[in-house]
Amino acid sequence: MLDRPMYLKPDVAIEPLFNQWYVWWYLISPATAPLFMSRLHLKLMQSFVANPDVHVAALQNPALMGGPFINHPVSRVNDVKALMERTTRENADMLAYTKAVSDLEQLLASSKGESLEPLYAKVPDMLRGYVELTYDLAHRANARIMEPLLYRSSLYKESAQSISLMRVTGDARKYVFSTPRLEGDSPLWLQVPFRHEGIDALFRMRHTPGSPGQVAEMLGVPASAADAFADLFTETAPRKPEPYTGSGVRVRYFGHACVLMETREVSVLTDPVISYEFPTEQRRFTHADLPEKIDYVLITHGHADHLMMETLLQLRHRIGTIVVPRANAYSLADPSLRLVLERTGFRNVVEIDDLQEIPIPGGSLMGIPFIGEHSDLAVQAKTAHLVRLAGRSLLMAADSNALEPRMYQHLTQLVGPLDALYLGMECEGGPMSWMYGPLLSQPLPRKMDQSRRLNGSDSARATEILNHLNPKEVFIYAMGQEPWLRHVMVLQYDETAPQMIESNKFIDVCKGRGIAAARPFLSMERVLE
Ligand SMILES: [Fe+2]
Ligand SMILES: [Fe+2]
Known about the structure:
Elements: E1 7-8, E2 12-18, E3 21-22, H1 33-50, H2 52-58, H3 77-90, H4 92-109, E4 131-135, E5 141-145, H5 147-151, E6 161-167, E7 189-190, H6 197-204, H7 212-219, H8 226-230, E8 233-234, E9 249-255, E10 258-262, E11 267-270, E12 294-298, H9 309-315, E13 319-325, H10 337-342, E14 349-352, E15 357-360, E16 363-369, E17 383-389, E18 392-396, H11 405-415, E19 420-424, H12 432-436, H13 446-451, H14 459-469, E20 473-477, H15 498-512, E21 516-518, E22 524-528
Parallel strand pairs: 11-12, 12-13, 13-14, 18-19, 19-20, 20-21
Antiparallel strand pairs: 1-8, 2-3, 2-6, 4-5, 6-7, 9-10, 9-22, 10-11, 15-16, 16-17, 17-18
Domain Diiron non-heme beta-hydroxylase N-terminal: 7-236
Organism: Corallococcus aberystwythensis
Domain Metallo-beta-lactamase: 268-422
């Protein structure tokens, strides 16, 4: 039965895991994964093992979903304990790295502007040869991490990577970032690294029939999971995507910051987060609506709702080129997105800089500075993408926060006439600790934590962008409201949430100026002729 040509069912999902925790970019780079393992995962597991009731009780309150609580019943305490012990046992080097990073920070803090040469001998042993010590022009010492070298060290542990496959028959999925997967949670938990070709062979079967038996062999599916694996396949062919044959640009909103732009010659997809397909009243585009080959995937930044490994791994085999912003090697908060993708099996990963232009068939891509939304940390790996196609021009600005409107003034001439602005307006983001806490060796005072939130643009700031770029149409996107994002974004806004109030206000501003504006939800299609 497994050797007949079959398709992958349209509701099959993959969860990429690191030490059994759902993966995002900080858990792939060997420069940052040890910090999250030591200061987040192990701490959460210690807390659960000591007081599982506290976690269970906290999660009774929906407002605490997404908080630092493990979503397993008390009965799983021994499994969590076993994972905690195994993680500690198998990752002693990662724990040592975390300590070395904090020791190095202290060492650099003691330097007073004199030559850094004598400090090389004092760099913690495991970091020696992986860092260059430098001063900025105000004589503050810093270290440049040679991340490509770290990827070649034992700190990059592919053995800690695994995948779990499952069918998703509805939008309801539990929040993933604070709860490890445990043995027995899924029969199809496979010990393969993310770059494994079996993942491509499997997801190619979404559109091209293949042999489940062959893929099972590639992925090393154990005999005990054969039935569960067979259940992922069907003989029924999926819906065929409807190609665009017009002379303009067809723009389809797939949810959140994911937008597909197609001309007759080329397809461009931003920040892929795609719904699985199952019977539902809430109509949306799914994997079945994607072209068989996606020529360009554009990533705006590393946040897990924009660089979502779960979706990217499924698309890897059909992506031509993937464009990412360049990172800043002097900041541990800013691992290279190119390396994250290259080391996990993506080909043709291209970095784009601010104002760099990349020609594509029938148009071009340009990197536009994306400021803010990263707690004032020196994160460079973020970009807005100006997409020019068939004489049209669309700016995908993601979570840009117009902290300094004059930047947009400087861009006015360069951007030129703009047909559509896509802007996220999560004007009240999480506190700094929620995203970046585990990167910090020093304690984070509450006042600092609260003042440096991950805020996107509010109405006043969005209006400043409007003033300078003067788009013909505005779309407020990346609001995290689609139900298929619930496992990565717990927040559901009602009309009293600042994100809704501010975006409604901005829609009114646009309309007052005769600019069409909307906040798409679930799906939307526009054709720019
Ligand atoms: Fe973001
Ligand atoms: Fe976002």
